[in-house]
Design brief:
The structure is a single chain. By secondary structure, this protein is an alpha/beta fold. It folds into two domains: 123 residues, Sugar-phosphate isomerase, RpiB/LacA/LacB (Ribose 5-phosphate Isomerase B, Chain: A), CATH 3.40.1400.10; 96 residues, Arc Repressor Mutant, subunit A (Orthogonal Bundle), CATH 1.10.10. It contains 13 helices and five strands. A five-stranded parallel beta sheet has the order 2-1-3-5-4, sandwiched between helices. Helix 4 links the parallel strand 4 and strand 5. The chain starts with a strand and ends with a helix.
């Protein structure tokens, strides 16, 4: 099963343990909102919900310290049914009877192996069908998602996206927001930032070049949008993730270097 997972800073270690166990069980798990420093703004719940909406994942799991808030955020995305579950029975029945496609786990209620028990019960249930009322038809919506993904490095106007599905700009924008909870422009910006995050984590490509690769005309615009959506600058995001990948010795040396520079 394809599973999207995310957490706030407090739930990071639990998320990692769950993801490792699920991968070992044969699931394909993608962290859609990698770790960010405490106090940084995060829309991790929305990212899980959008992954389920786009069919990038069949189900979502959120681990956090504010379960109700995460549930509310995820449920703003049409077609997503997210719920906070503190026991295995509720998780199983929520998926089976209510079509719950995003499971929310609150840290304060998890003890011992309870988190894994709840997740196992959730994934073992056959998901009840979900009827999405209004918005773009699913096939047209997926066509838009694919078009944005395949053309992320160039300008993408609302007019062009409307033409992809053969609609007027006005009705396309209205129905797209009904389907996703966000405007076409906001969605494109989010996808540019997600592509940039991957490049910053996995490559040494200069920041200006990353900005160009994901469709920003200037590095300053890239930095402004990135900070707004992620809560930190592209440079700091890269430094943070590269530090996490280093060995303890390398990480200590880097921290000493940064401290000396400061």
């Amino acid at each position: 099963m394809h599973i999207a997972i995310a957490s706030d800073d407090a739930g990071h270690s639990v998320k990692q343990r769950l993801a490792a166990k699920l991968n070992a069980d044969g699931h394909e798990v993608v962290d859609v909102a990698p770790h960010v420093p405490e106090q940084s703004r995060s829309d991790y719940a929305e990212q899980v919900a959008l992954s389920v909406l786009r069919h990038d994942a069949e189900r979502g799991i959120i681990v956090c310290s504010r379960g109700v808030g995460a549930s509310v955020s995820a449920n703003r995305v049409p077609g997503v049914r997210a719920a906070l579950c503190n026991d295995a029975y509720s998780a199983h029945m929520g998926a089976k009877n209510e079509g719950m496609n995003v499971l929310v786990l609150a840290l304060h209620s998890l003890e011992g192996e309870l988190a894994q028990e709840i997740v196992d019960a959730y994934l073992s249930a056959m998901l009840a069908p979900i009827e999405v009322v209004g918005g773009l038809p699913p096939r047209r919506l997926q066509r838009i998602f694919s078009h944005v993904r395949e053309n992320i490095g160039r300008e993408l106007s609302v007019t062009e996206l409307a033409q992809v599905v053969g609609m007027s700009q006005y009705y396309f924008s209205k129905l797209f927001k009904m389907s996703t909870g966000t405007t076409p422009h906001q969605y494109v910006m989010r996808q540019r930032v997600e592509a940039a995050q991957e490049a910053l984590r996995e490559t040494q490509t200069p920041l200006a070049e990353v900005a160009t690769q994901v469709g920003f005309e200037t590095q300053s615009h890239f930095t402004s949008v990135f900070r707004k959506l992620v809560g930190t600058t592209p440079k700091h995001y890269r430094e943070m993730h590269q530090l996490a990948l280093q060995s303890p010795e390398q990480g200590l040396a880097a921290e000493r270097k940064n401290a000396t520079a400061a």
